[in-house]
Amino acid sequence: MSSVVTAAPYLILAAVCAPALSGLATMLLGGSRRLPRLTLATAGPVASVALLAIHLGRHGVSPADTPTGTIPWVPSLQLDISFLVDGLGAFFALLIAGMGVVVVLYARAYFGPDDASLARFFPTLGFFTSAMLGVVLADHLLLTVLFWELTAISSFLLIGWDRDDADAGKRAMQAFFTTGLGGLALLGGILLFGGHTGIWRWSRLIAEATTISHDGTVIAAFVLIFVGAATKSAQWPLHDWLPGAMKAPTPVSAYLHSATMVKAGVFLLGRMLPAFGALALWLPLLVSIGAVTML
């Protein structure tokens, strides 16, 4: 039994990396071999769903205050690759991987059989899918930020997909600049919170939520993290990048801007809720920003 438990974080790591690896594998195929390329591209998110299902079948959903597993990374800096497959993370991961399968299948019909850009499209889409899986399954706060920024890089490449369209490149840069600033706010909030409380894991944050003092530093950290979440979810007044991002191919817009990336902010708020939900600022800020965004 111990060997199975030890293998758990590697199983999750494989689920996270599968779409990116399958996307890279498509680059090894010639442009005329369309069916194998599409089959490989589909295999990545399918493998992620299967690996997550295997993990959940063996271990079930982890308690939110208990890390699923840890892989040593930089012990001297207390950095590791740790995962948290609780109910929230498992739901979003299955949604991301499942929608990834649907989007790849849709892209089969969207792109022409002789479209040379497929050699770039599937690796970039797989990279984005893996980054999103990392965001929702990471337990270490800094690992979450790392994957968060990887989604910004991959979305920049996908939004500016048409190299012959100068406006697409402009819109991609606008999205990258805006979400990049949000990512810096998120990083600043995480560093401020972790440095002040000594908490660097979501699981520990949830376990010790009732003991966290809501002093000025914690409130400032919350505001910065909220800015990061609101930027990614295109909430007012940080929403201007989203309409222009629709210059991306339809499969990209359907996946990034409807089903997954803009939901990353919602996911982050869900992770923050146990620690920050009792703040007097929490409900008024979320309700007011959400209401104005709807208008």
Describe the structure in your own words.
With 295 residues, this protein is mainly α. The chain has one domain (2-294). It contains twelve helices and two strands, in the order H-H-E-E-H-H-H-H-H-H-H-H-H-H. The chain has helices at 2-26, 34-59, 87-110, 118-137, 141-159, 166-197, 202-207, 216-232, 241-245, 250-259, 264-276, 282-294; strands at 69-74, 79-83. It has a two-stranded antiparallel sheet. The chain is globular and about 60 Å long. The termini are far apart. Mean pLDDT is 87; it is low at 1-5.
Number of strands: 2
Summarize the main sheet.
2 strands, antiparallel
Catalogue the unreliable spans: 1-5
- Amino- and carboxy-terminal Cα gap: 54 Å
* Backbone CA Rg: 19 Å
Helix-strand pattern:
HHEEHHHHHHHHHH
Give the averaged pLDDT, no decimals.
Answer: 87
- Coarse morphology: globular
Quaternary:
single chain
* Cross-sheet strand order for the largest sheet: 1-2
Write the layout of secondary structure elements.
Layout: H1 2-26, H2 34-59, E1 69-74, E2 79-83, H3 87-110, H4 118-137, H5 141-159, H6 166-197, H7 202-207, H8 216-232, H9 241-245, H10 250-259, H11 264-276, H12 282-294
Antiparallel strand pairs: 1-2
Helix pairs in contact: 1-2, 1-4, 2-3, 2-4, 3-4, 3-10, 4-5, 5-6, 6-8, 8-11
